[in-house]
Amino acid sequence: MATRRGPDNTVRVAIAGTRIGVAWANVFWVQLTTSSSISQSDLNTWLTAFANAYKTAFAPRTGPATQFHLATGTCFTPGLSVLQATSAMTGTGSEAGTEITDNAAAKVISWLSTVYWRGGKPRTYITGPMVGDFATSIAYTAGEVTNMTTAANSFRTAVNALTQGTITGTTLGFVSFQTGNAPRITPLFFSVTGATMHPRVGTQRRRLGRWIS
User: Fold this and answer.
1) pLDDT grade, residue 18 (50/70/90)?
2) 141 sits in which H/E element
3) Could you give the CA distance from residue 20 to residue 40 in angstroms, rounded to a whole number?
4) Which helix (H) or strand (E) holds 54?
5) pLDDT the model gives residue 167
6) Handedness of CA 204, 207, 210, 213 (dihedral sign)
7) What are phi and psi of 80, to 5 degrees?
8) What Cα–Cα distance (Å) separates residue 47 from each residue in 22, 30, 77, 86, 159?
9) pLDDT greater than 80 at residue 132
10) CA geometry: angle 46, 52, 56, nearest 5 deg
11) In whole angstroms, what is the distance from residue 184 CA to residue 57 CA?
12) DSSP alpha helices (H): ranges in 59-183?
């Protein structure tokens, strides 16, 4: 269950898996347009389609050690209600080559929008870069930057095309919960207009787990 409530008819989606025994997750927000109240069956089917769009875009950009396990969705419906859905995922990444063992290393996508503020844009950290993706110890090749940017934008296009029964439209974006260091009375949703990959190697140290000593 999400710890903060999004605007009406937004969905918080988490894609989760493991890599070499270590858990990873990517979280996304979308805004749905609807013809009527969203049904549980429509949300279930929609979530499976979202998970498939994620795998189609990003599985080719991570190695076989990356496994996909579960998609979960929390839909915030009008009247302070909530619908929740889960969709089992299977399979692994399919990028060819030699895998690195560092579970903290990531390819970082920045999601673009028409709003700006200090602190940057929402980011997605894709686990499991391959040896051949690196140009140097701190940077990815220009080819991989292009590949990941293309994958991220194709994911956005696929998500924005999703419909299912009472769900007549989907927009990938993010939710702003604070302004001026204070919580918003009503959180705001902003749509994503594009994506870019950072050439610099990203890291998520929390994926390495607790300190052993």
Assistant:
1) very high
2) none
3) 34
4) helix 40-58
5) 98
6) negative
7) 60, 25
8) 24, 11, 15, 7, 10
9) yes
10) 145
11) 33
12) 142-160
Q: Find, among 134, 191, 188, 204, the residue nearest to 157 by Cα.
A: 191
* pLDDT tens readout for residues 60-108: 999 999 999 999 999 999 998 999 999 999 999 999 999 999 999 999 9
Provide the percentage of residues in the chain whose pLDDT is more than 90: 82
Closest CA to 111 of 147, 153, 72, 160: 153
Measured CA to CA, the distance from residue 68 to residue 57 in angstroms comes to 13
Distance CA 163, CA 180 (A): 36
pLDDT of residue 152: 98
What is the pLDDT, as a whole number, of residue 1? 54
Residue 152 contacts residue 197 (beta carbons within 8 Å): yes
